[in-house]
């Protein structure tokens, strides 16, 4: 990453959209990369989205952020990713009426393949990529497959939103502040099959499972709450937000993206526990190598590392396996479409 005098180049795709708008002002104010790190923004849109991105660029100028070294708006992926240090791939094709799953994967392959190739052609050596646009894990796999010169571990997908959602639900159930909780894990896919796991979580250093049992009337009641309320609530929270607000999450998704990059670049704080990141599996925890799956992850010296040696119960194993099977199915589908 550049030193504090050289601007870091951040490329944001889908910059004219909802999450893009929520992200831009936080990036430009230093909340993602640090209060002393200048940033150059490259906003990539499709032609229909250019006006919205240009409007956001005008507003960025009006906000007079001292850290903002420049803003370029373009619909040319090669120009957008030239010299990029941090790539936020937010723009994606939403599922339309009558679209089958294979249609969605194919439409997004048409976006993430060329963007991966543009990253391969022009990115800085230290490039870090986070895919937010859905289906995020498989879109990241496609982008990575088109960037053979970029180490695969630089391609990640966002499950920090799911991680934060799990913290929020757990804090509410325990009537405790979020800040005392640590070591929650999201495993698998950013989809309803994901497994939010609290079996290693602690509150102020105390394991949460006995605390839940105490509050909910015993260990059986706590297990029931986890299986029937907590896990589905977190896993289907995206759908709940769509139902309640009429469109998918924006502020929380942007906030999680900021958290993801901040922790990757700056490190997870020692003592603050791990986070969740979808990254290429190295075979840990029985997840087939290469699948972009969410794991418990620490960031040390700018590198993401899967936390090793955690005990995995039978209950957890079945749920991890189910989500990983879905990821393998998506990989096989995009491979069959010639996108890998
Ligand atoms: P949005 O429709 O408001 O904005 C998307 C923008 O992307 C649009 O402006 C569109 O023009 C642009 N776009 C489309 N194709 C593009 C391309 N090839 N290059 C550049 N830009 C392109 O949507 P949003 O609310 O900002 O959500 C964006 C994506 O993030 C969606 O796929 C959504 O499902 C996903 N999402 C993911 C998470 C997560 O946790 N991983 C959470 C929330 C939303
Ligand atoms: C979310 O988790 O809020 C989104 O991924 C939901 C969606 O389908 O956009």
Automatic annotation (TrEMBL):
Substrate binds at residues 95, 101, 134, 165. The keyword NAD applies. SUPFAM superfamilies: LDH C-terminal domain-like, NAD(P)-binding Rossmann-fold domains. Residues 9-148 form the Lactate/malate dehydrogenase N-terminal domain. NAD(+) binds at residues 14-20, 108, 115, 132-134. InterPro entries: L-lactate/malate_DH, Lactate/malate_DH_C, Lactate/malate_DH_N, Lactate_DH/Glyco_Ohase_4_C, Malate_DH_AS, Malate_DH_type2, NAD(P)-bd_dom_sf. It catalyses: (S)-malate + NAD(+) = oxaloacetate + NADH + H(+). Keywords: NAD, Oxidoreductase, Tricarboxylic acid cycle. Transmembrane segments: none annotated. Residues 159-331 form the Lactate/malate dehydrogenase C-terminal domain. GO terms for biological process: malate metabolic process; tricarboxylic acid cycle. It comes from the Bacteria. Its EC number is 1.1.1.37. The active site is at 190 (proton acceptor). One of its GO terms (molecular function) is L-malate dehydrogenase (NAD+) activity. NCBIfam families: MalateDH-SF1, PRK05442.1. Belongs to the LDH/MDH superfamily. MDH type 2 family. Catalyzes the reversible oxidation of malate to oxaloacetate. This is Malate dehydrogenase. It comes from Microterricola viridarii.
């Amino acid at each position: 990453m550049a030193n504090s005098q050289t601007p870091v180049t951040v490329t944001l795709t889908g910059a004219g959209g909802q999450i893009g708008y929520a992200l831009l002002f936080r990036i430009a104010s230093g909340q993602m990369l640090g209060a002393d790190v200048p940033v150059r923004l490259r906003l990539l849109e499709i032609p229909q989205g250019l006006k919205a991105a240009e409007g956001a660029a005008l507003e960025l100028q009006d906000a007079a952020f001292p850290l903002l070294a420049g803003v370029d708006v373009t619909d040319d992926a090669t120009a957008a990713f030239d010299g990029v240090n941090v790539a936020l791939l937010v723009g994606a094709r939403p599922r339309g009426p009558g679209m089958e799953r294979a249609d969605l994967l194919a439409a997004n392959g048409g976006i993430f393949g060329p963007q991966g190739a543009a990253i391969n052609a022009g990115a800085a050596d230290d490039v870090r990529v986070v895919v937010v646009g859905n289906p995020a894990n498989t879109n990241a796999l496609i982008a990575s497959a088109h960037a053979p010169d970029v180490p695969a571990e630089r391609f990640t997908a966002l499950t920090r939103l799911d991680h934060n959602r799990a913290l929020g639900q757990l804090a509410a159930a325990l009537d405790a502040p979020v800040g005392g909780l640590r070591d929650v894990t999201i495993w698998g896919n950013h989809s309803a099959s994901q497994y939010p796991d609290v079996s290693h979580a602690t509150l102020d250093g105390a394991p949460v499972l006995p605390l839940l049992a105490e509050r909910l009337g015993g260990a059986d009641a706590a297990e029931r709450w986890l299986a029937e309320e907590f896990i589905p609530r977190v896993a289907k929270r995206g759908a709940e937000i769509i139902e309640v607000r009429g469109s998918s999450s924006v502020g929380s998704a942007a906030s999680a993206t900021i958290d993801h990059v901040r922790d990757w670049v700056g490190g997870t704080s020692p003592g603050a526990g791990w986070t969740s990141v979808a990254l290429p599996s190295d075979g840990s925890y029985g997840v087939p190598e290469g699948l972009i799956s969410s794991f418990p992850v620490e960031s040390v010296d700018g590198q993401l590392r899967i936390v090793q040696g955690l005990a995995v119960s039978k209950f957890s194993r079945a749920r991890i396996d189910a989500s990983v099977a879905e990821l393998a199915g998506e990989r096989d589908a995009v491979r069959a479409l010639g996108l890998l």
